[in-house]
Design goal:
With about 160 residues, the protein is an alpha+beta fold. The protein folds into two domains: about 40 residues, Winged helix-like DNA-binding domain superfamily/Winged helix DNA-binding domain (Arc Repressor Mutant, subunit A); about 80 residues, 2-Layer Sandwich (Alpha-Beta Plaits), CATH 3.30.70. Helix content is about 35%, strand content about 20%. The chain is built from five helices and four strands, in the order H-H-H-E-H-E-E-H-E. Strands 2-3-1-4 form a four-stranded antiparallel beta sheet. A hairpin with a 6-residue loop joins strand 2 and strand 3. Helix 1 packs across helix 2 and helix 2 packs across helix 3. The longest helix has 13 residues. It is elongated.
Length: about 160
């Protein structure tokens, strides 16, 4: 695992810029980090190869795309047997509505961040997608009233 403290300051500068604008040209990126375009390109390729940069993509406006409901769903599974846990994880990974799934400590086992179109879509998702998963013991859903902060950029320094 690469830690920020081991990153060269030029790599940190490149990563900051790419988090801000993943479509930036290599020439413009090089200008912003005060490095030659070939050297910048080589650093970006290395960061990709090392897995620090996992992917590039567009960040969509959830509501404008028609997904009015953002929910956090907490799930408890019945038995913590390896096969049951892996089956749950495999099935959740296949659900396109699930934006994030985290194995957590505390009262629940998993926390899901889910984007849905409306209340009916939520009902369908819980009843037809989550409830039938073998081993699901308890489901607790919280609806987001307003999103105060939502970023994906890491606070590199």
């Amino acid at each position: 695992m690469i830690q920020e403290t081991h990153l060269h300051p030029l790599d940190v500068a490149i990563l900051r810029e790419l988090q801000s604008d993943g479509r930036i040209s290599n020439v413009e990126l090089a200008r912003r980090v005060h490095l030659s375009p070939p050297a910048t390109h080589a650093r970006v390729k290395r960061l990709e190869k090392e897995g620090l940069i996992r992917q590039y993509g567009a960040t969509l406006d959830r509501e404008k795309a028609g997904f009015d409901l953002l929910c956090f769903i907490q799930i408890t599974i019945q038995l913590h047997q390896p096969q049951q846990v892996e089956r749950f994880r495999t099935l959740v990974r296949q659900l396109p509505e699930v934006l994030e799934c985290h194995h957590i400590t505390g009262e629940y086992d998993y926390l899901l961040k889910v984007a849905l179109r409306n209340r009916k879509d939520l009902e369908r998702f819980v009843v037809k997608q989550l409830t039938p998963i073998p081993g699901v013991a308890r489901i607790h859903t919280s609806l987001v009233l307003s999103e105060i902060k939502a970023v994906s950029a890491l606070p590199l320094k």
